[in-house]
Amino acid sequence: MAGTFDARMQQLGEIVGEGDLTGRVSYDSYYAFWVHERLELRHPVGQAKYLETAQIIMANVWFSGLAGNVLNGQLRRSAIRETERFSDQAEALTPVEFGDLHNNARAQVFDNGGQIYHRAPRIPGPSYEQKLAQRRGRRRRRGL
Questions:
Q1: What is the dihedral angle through the alpha carbons of 10, 74, 21, 91, rounded to the nearest 10 degrees?
Q2: pLDDT at position 61 over 60
Q3: Total-model pTM
């Protein structure tokens, strides 16, 4: 990249492109938000704020991974890889007493609003109705 700063920046813009490249990690279990936000709960393994903590832990790794791939045209692939790494970190921090929350992260990457990657949860979480049915079944077995 020779030339003036403006020329080099224009060349970089042509290589990288414009717009938003966004990674998203979310959970399907209806109670994931509740487990994430309840700071007063004590978990023997895992913790509340598992997404926020993973974001703090992975921020430098995320940006380093992206920056290392800007000029070689692998930015989208890098975003997918880094989103999966973030998902793995978040799943490692989820409380294990909620077994169906573990491995329940959904990873997605969007380029200018269009989805370019989607990995469904490794283990789909139960819906609210499914959890109610499980609870009712346990009560019936106990004679309640």
A1: -150
A2: yes
A3: 0.77
